[in-house]
Write a structure and sequence with these properties.
The structure is a single chain. With 356 residues, the chain is an alpha+beta fold. Helix content is 58%, strand content 13%. The protein has two domains: 10-111 and 121-155, no CATH class; 176-353, Histidine kinase-like ATPase, C-terminal domain (Heat Shock Protein 90, 2-Layer Sandwich), CATH 3.30.565.10. The protein contains nine helices and seven strands; from the N terminus they run H-H-H-H-H-H-E-H-E-E-H-E-E-H-E-E. The protein has a five-stranded mixed β-sheet with strand order 2-4-5-7-6, with helices on one face.
């Protein structure tokens, strides 16, 4: 069995992203210093400054891991959210002061050879508080984005599960629908030609393997579907008269493994035989199947006659199934042209499935 690539779990992806972002914020400022400063002076200044980003990290994760998910997203308690963040900001300011006191005691004094900094008429905590507020806003934004991503992923998973269940249901409907139409054709043969009916039963047995086994897969190689279509057309030829002109061109290589949904075209062929033959046993049916550069095209033309009242073959659900399966299995990758010619004597249907 071929191995498949497993995408990393989101929590590990987020962890790596967080580590990279904080590493950039903490490490990069170390390299922005005067070329005349010695390494000891650079490290002294860097360690004094390091308390601010460490306080930012503390405030960010207090919000990211606790305050935002519990009080903002879950309970939607804005008052508690604001009160707790006031407390968190105080904790962050205390962390900055504690760090600064530790560094001042442990590190030597910096040389004071440069120009004196001008007096700033703001409280010394002003910029620290402003930064911490921005960090809180960042934590809220990150949590909201992640929550939206999780909701979107869950929606896509639910949609995929629903689509898979619907496809499975359509496949289960296709088997009895196909067999019912085929058995009705054989039943019609028994009335006037038992030998042909026996031959038809033999041809039907060739089709059952494809219907019962291949149809349980999402995709089958195109050559298998082409063989199935040839066998089905041969089966249908048994019941029609020589006055019906059938032109089937299955231009598919015997080894063409292009994936295609099983039984996706068979309802079109059934429809052609159902409406393309007159009560007098006359009509024309042309079927073309080809694959060019990965694009699969099935085109069918048939004369059009109203369905006879005593014709019980089919129930009209086949084409509806084809349309729904195309939407589910080939979204934005197919075209379906169908309708009557201008003179109203011929019906055409052309499905093109584009290469993925």
């Amino acid at each position: 069995m071929a191995s498949t690539l497993v995408e990393p779990k989101p929590k590990y992806r987020y962890l790596v992203l967080h580590l990279l972002c904080w590493a950039v914020i903490i490490v990069v400022p170390m390299f922005f210093h005067s070329s005349g400063d010695g390494w000891a002076v650079v490290m002294n200044r860097y360690l004094r400054w390091l308390g601010n980003p460490l306080a930012d990290i503390l405030v960010f994760y207090l919000n990211y891991l606790w305050v935002v998910p519990r009080f903002l997203l879950k309970k939607r308690d804005w008052k508690m959210f604001v009160l707790l963040n006031l407390l968190v900001i105080m904790v962050g300011l205390c962390a900055i002061d504690v760090w600064h006191l530790l560094v001042v005691r442990l590190l030597p004094e910096l040389p004071n050879n440069g120009p004196q900094r001008p007096y700033v008429p703001f409280p010394r905590y002003f910029w620290a508080i402003l930064t911490l507020i921005l960090i809180i806003a960042l934590a809220v934004a990150v949590r909201m984005i992640q929550r939206w991503q999780h909701i979107e992923e869950a929606r896509r998973e639910a949609e995929a599960a629903r689509a898979e269940a619907e496809l499975s249901n359509l496949r289960n409907q296709m088997n009895p629908h196909f067999l019912l139409n085929t058995l009705n054709n054989i039943y019609a043969l028994i009335a006037f030609d038992q030998e042909k009916a026996q031959t038809a039963v033999g041809e039907l047995s060739k089709l059952l393997r494809h219907v019962l086994y291949e149809n349980q897969q999402d995709y089958v190689p195109l050559y298998k579907e082409a063989d199935f279509m040839r066998n089905y057309i041969e089966l249908m030829k048994i019941r029609v008269t020589d006055n019906v002109k059938i032109d089937a061109n299955i231009n598919v290589r015997p080894d063409d493994s292009t994936p295609v949904a099983p039984l996706i075209f068979i309802s079109l062929i059934e429809n052609a035989f159902k409406h393309g033959i007159s009560p007098q046993g006359k009509g024309e049916i042309k079927i073309d199947l080809s694959q060019v550069d990965g694009n699969i095209t099935c085109e069918i033309h048939n004369t059009c006659y109203p369905k006879r009242e005593n014709d019980k073959s089919g129930s009209g659900i086949g084409l509806e199934q084809v349309s729904r399966r195309l939407e589910l299995m080939y979204p934005d990758r197919y075209t379906w042209e169908k309708g009557m010619t201008e003179d109203g004597k011929e019906y055409y249907s052309k499905i093109t499935i584009k290469k993925n």
